[in-house]
Amino acid sequence: MSGPKEELGEQRDSTKKKKKKKKKTESGKKRREKQQEEEGVKGGGGGEEEEEEEGEKQQVEEEEVHSSDCIVLRGIFKLGKKSHDVLLTRTRLTWTPITPEMPTGEACVLQPGVMPLQDVFAVKVKRRRAAGQESGGPVLGVTLFCSRQRGRRLEEDTLHLHNASAEHTYTWYNTLKELVSGFSSRPKCLKVFINPSSHKKEAVHIYREHVAPLFKMADVSTDITVTEKKGHALSVMKECKLDEFDGVVCVGGDGSVAEVCHALVLRAQLDADSPEKPVKPVLPLGIIPAGSTNVVSCSVHGVRDPVTAALHIILGHQQQVDMCSFSSLGQLVCFGFSAMFGFGGQSLARAEKKRWMPSSQRREYALVKTLARLKPEYCHLSFIPVTKTTRDLFGHHSEDEDLDQDPGSVDAEGEGTWTTIKGLYLNISVMSIPCLSPHAPRGLAPNTSLANGSASLIAVGNTSRSEFIKHLKRYSSSSGQFSFSFVETHTVTAVRIRPRSQRSWSEEESEGEEGDSKTTPIIQTEGATFPWNIDGELVEIANEVLIRVHPRLITLYGEDMDEAESTVSCSCI
Ligand SMILES: Nc1ncnc2c1ncn2[C@@H]1O[C@H](COP(=O)(O)OP(=O)(O)OP(=O)(O)O)[C@@H](O)[C@H]1O
C-alpha cells in the first residue's frame, strides 16, 4: 500500500510525464482558463520544481499541465481484492488494476473504472468495528457514496477504496470532501413539508425510510413540518425565515406540490412587494412522490421513486419549469401546472364524494360513472396562440365549433391576439408541463415541455362515448390520442374558458345522486359553480377562468424527462 510520501512522489512524476504528453493535446484558450481556475483549489500539478521555474517557458508549461483535467491526488488502493492505481482530478476518480508484467513481455490491456465526482454525494472514512461499536476502530480506507443511473431511476451506490494507512486515507478523505462540497447547486439546508394524509398515509414513512437517511449521509440538514391540514404549508411558508434554507422539499402528491409551489410564488411576491405580478421564488423545490397522483414529480424524475427524487435534490440537479396562474373575475385562485375542465373536473368531483373508498377504487368508480353520464359543456374558449396561425395540430376542427377572431382582442400589453372558439366540449385541458405518469408515459400533454414558455391546450369536442373512450385509451399507448377530428390542440400563452350553461354542474349532479356526499369541495366560490381539476385538486369556480402561462416561474429539483417509466394502465376502460 502506498503511504502519503509515496503518493506525493507519484504525483510529481505524473505531472512531469503529463507535461511532455500534453504539449500535443493542448487546445483553446477557454479550456486553459477553465483549468487554471480549477487549479485554484488544490495545486494539482504544483511542486517546488515548478515554483522555481520562471519566464515564458514556465508559463507555457503550466498551461500545458492544466490543459486537461489535472491530477489532484494519485495513490494505490485496493478495490475489491485487487490493487489499483487511483487518480483523482477535480472532476472524476479513475482506477486501473495493477497487474504484474507478463513473462512474455506482452502488454495487458486494462479498462480503467471511472466515477464522475458530480455523481458522488458523500465521502466517509471506513473503519473496522466490532458489532455494537459506534466509534473508533482502525482505518480501512475511504468510501464514496454516489448515484448510479439505471433507466430513469437514480440508485445509491458505493465505492470502497481500501488502504490501511490512516494518513493516506485522511489525505484522500479531506480532498474528496472538499471537491464534493464545491458543487454550488447542492443544498445544505432544506425546509421539508410532509403531508401525512397523502395517498395511503405513507408520506412520513417514505420520508423516514428512503429520504432522511440519504439527506443525513449527504450532510443535508432539514427543518420538517408535518402538515396538519390543507393550507398549513401555505401559512408556514408565509411566515418562515427562508434565507436559512437552500431549498424546499414537499413530500406528498400533486395537491401538496401545487400548494407549496403556490406558497413559494406568493411568498416571493410578498418579499418583492409585487401584489399583482408573479415573482420567481429564489428557492428550488424538491418533490418526494407520495401521493395518489404524482405527475409533477414524474415530469421531472420520469419515475415515481422517492430515492430518485432524493438523489436529484442532493446532487442539486435543477430544472426551470413554467407555471400557470388561474384567476376568476380578476381574483387569483391559485398557481399551478395543469387544469382540466369538463370530464376531468367532473370525474374528480365524483371521486371526492367517495372519499371513504380506497383512492384507486374511488378514481375508477368516478371515471366509469362520469363516462356513463358523459355530457358536453357549451363554452366560449379563448386563447392566445404562440404562433400567429391558430391551427389544429392535425388540421382538423370540430364540427360543433365556429372559429372566429375576437375583435379588438390584442391585449393591452401587446402579448398577442386572442382567438375565440365557441362550441360543445367534453373536456378542456391546459397544461404547462407534459404531465408524465406511469399511465400516460409520454404525458397527458406531450406537445409541451417543462420550460418552453407555453402551455398545451387540448380541447376535446363533442363526440360519441365510444370515440371519447378510444381517445382516452390512447394516452396509455405511445401516441395517436390527438388524431381524432373532435380533438384540437394549440400551443398557447393564455386561455380563457367561459362555460355558458345556465345551470351549474353540481345542481344537475345532485338531482341524479344518491346523496352520499359527506365532503365539501376543497375550494368553494359563491354562485353556480363548475368543477375544475387543478393539479389533482377539486376547485369549484363560477364563471370564467383565465389561465396565464408564466415562463420558468419555478425551479424544481430534477431533469427534463421525455418519457416516464410505464406501468399497467387502468383496467376500467
Ligand atoms: N394533514 C392533512 N390532512 C388533510 N389534508 C391535508 C393535510 N396536509 C395537507 N393536506 C392537503 O391534502 C391535499 C391532497 O394532498 P396530496 O395531493 O399530497 O395527496 P394525494 O393523495 O395525491 O391527493 P388526494 O388525497 O386528493 O388523492 C392537499 O391539498 C394538501 O394541502
Automatic annotation (TrEMBL):
The keyword Transferase is assigned to this record: yes
Region feature (Disordered): 1-64, 498-522
Pfam families according to UniProt: CERK_C, DAGK_cat
Record's keyword annotation contains Kinase: yes
Residue span, DAGKc domain: 185-330
Keywords of this entry: Kinase, Transferase
Gene Ontology process terms (BP): sphingolipid metabolic process
Biased composition (Basic and acidic residues): 1-14
GO CC annotation terms, alphabetical: membrane
Entry protein name: Ceramide kinase
